[in-house]
Write a structure and sequence with these properties.
The chain is mainly beta and 125 residues long. 0% of the residues lie in helices and 49% in strands. The model has no long low-confidence stretch (mean pLDDT 96).
């Protein structure tokens, strides 16, 4: 069964860090592009970061540049999102998603086929 499972969310204070994990089963992430997205109550889904498995190209939305880092561990079939210096506006449900186009790295979400169920991140002030 093809499946994406996110983990690592939780409740933290402003300025603290979290590392989210996205583990795939049933397929290898090395043959897909992977993106992280988030959605807060009452707001539209937002692309946070992505990574291309073709050449390792990464991209970040302006709101998280310099604070978040995306990475991939092929041996564990897992993609990570290291989130430092967290702010209350980072609060939301974080989702990982995959695209069959290995060269893809965009944050629109329209080209991603498979999605996890999300993990909650809450940052208090």
């Amino acid at each position: 069964q093809v499946q994406l499972v996110e983990s690592g969310g939780g409740l933290v204070q402003s300025g603290q860090s979290l590392r989210l994990s996205c583990t795939a089963s049933g397929f290898s992430l090395d043959y897909y592009a992977i993106g992280w997205f988030r959605q807060a109550p009452g707001k539209e889904r937002e692309g946070v970061s992505c990574i291309s498995s073709a050449d390792g190209t990464t991209s970040y939305t302006d709101a998280v540049k310099g604070r978040f880092t995306i990475s991939k561990d092929n041996a564990k079939n897992t993609v990570y999102l290291q989130m430092n210096s967290l702010k209350p506006e980072d609060t939301g449900v974080y989702y990982c998603a995959t695209a069959q186009d290995i060269t893809l790295c965009d944050l629109s979400g329209s080209d991603y086929e498979d999605w996890g169920l999300g993990t909650q991140v809450t940052v208090s002030s």
